[in-house]
Amino acid sequence: LGKDEERDKFNNTEKNYEMETAGTKLMRVLGGKESCSILQSDGRQYPITIQYSQRSSPLHGALLNDPKLLIKTMADSIEEALSKSPNRGDVLVFLPGAKEIRRTIEEL
User: Fold this and answer.
1) Cβ within 8 Å of residue 67, ≥6 positions away
2) How far apart are CA 75 and CA 56, in angstroms?
3) 3-class SS at 39?
4) Residues of the chain by 3-state class (helix, strand, coil), percent to 5
5) Are 54 and 81 in contact (CB under 8 A)?
């Protein structure tokens, strides 16, 4: 399509375009509603607060290339988060794997 046709395709309000979510894409790949059982689970949402570390941290690539730096940076960040809100909840941390999780726990 040319630029004008491409623009018109997305600006056409008469057509109904649906965004495909991960769930709807998975259902389509698995064969559609007729082939898939749909489960529903009523859950409870918990409020969260996102706080960013006040410390300056190394670039993402440096952390992934230096395991010792990753562990030290994560342990420091976790200690900072716990010191700011020791009785107000939990700290959720994302690490690349089980080995890094164990080493961070040891560092703490």
Assistant:
1) 100, 103
2) 14
3) coil
4) 45, 0, 55
5) no
pTM over 0.85: no
> CB–CB of 77/57 below 8 Å?
yes
Asked if residue 49 lies in contact with residue 82, where contact means CB atoms within 8 angstroms, the answer is no
- Token pair 């991960």 in the structure block, residue: 22
Determine the number of helices (DSSP H) and then strands (DSSP E) in the chain.
Answer: 5, 0
What are the tens digits of pLDDT across the range 59-107? 777 887 898 999 999 999 888 888 887 677 788 888 889 999 999 999 9
In Å, the largest CA–CA distance within the chain is 59
Cβ atoms of residues 98 and 104 within 8 Å: no
The upper half-sphere exposure of residue 30, i.e. CA atoms within 13 Å in the direction of its Cβ, equals 12
**Is the CB of residue 75 less than 8 Å from the CB of residue 104?**
yes
Amino acid at 11: N
SS3 (DSSP) at 41: coil
